[in-house]
Amino acid sequence: MDSSTILRFLIPLAATLCLILVHSNPAYSDDDVYDVLQDYDLPVGILPDGVIGFRLDRTTGKLSVSLSENCSFSEGKYQLKYESTVKGYLSSGKLSSLEGVSMKFPDVWMNIVEIFRRGESINFSVGAGKAAFPMEYFEESPQCGCGMNCGPRQARKLMANS
After folding, report:
1. Intervals of the chain under pLDDT 70
2. Distance of alpha carbon 155 from alpha carbon 138, whole angstroms
3. What Rg value do the Cα atoms of the chain yield, rounded?
4. Cα gap 11→20, rounded to integer Å
């Protein structure tokens, strides 16, 4: 093949590849999983502070979130625990087939299998039952160890243990 034949083949190929890249789903970086949640009409506070990475398949909605370690905290009468890897399927207003998140109430640990938005409420489903909370409870992400009740003393203790 001469060079003009090669160029006639390579130029359309390169243009096609550029179009595919421009029109493909946007890639999300590790530091904006909270923005992704908001893109899917969910509040940032359904995940704790400190996500170190995540993967999202925009076609299937399959989501995997990595935390630096297991995370637990208490909020009122509930105790929540996040494993270091949380998995599920993300769709508009819903995180389903959830793995790696559990809730203790009153003395029994139950796996949270779905988190979904209904109006201005966020619902946590454990399969047979669910609990609904106002959206405003999830405007900020809780911190491991102290949840939303991190005062200066607790924040210093957390930093000292890091």
Report:
1. 1-31, 151-162
2. 20
3. 21
4. 14
Q: How far is CA 66 from CA 19, 47, 70, 87, 114, in A?
A: 32, 11, 10, 9, 18
Q: In terms of Cα–Cα distance, which of 98, 101, 106 is closest to 70?
A: 101
Rounded to 5 degrees, φ, ψ at 86 are: -115, 130
pLDDT score recorded for residue 77: 81
CA distances to 17, 103, 128 from 107, rounded to whole Å, are 56, 10, 17
110 strand-pairing partners: 103
| Token pair belonging to 60 | 């299937």
| pLDDT, position 1 | 58
pTM listed for this prediction: 0.74
- Cα-Cα-Cα-Cα torsion 93, 99, 101, 103, nearest 10 degrees, comes to 100
**What does the alpha-carbon distance between residue 131 and residue 103 come to, in Å, rounded to a whole number?**
11
**Of 146, 133, 131, whose CA–CA distance to 72 is shortest?**
146
The per-residue pLDDT for 129 is 87
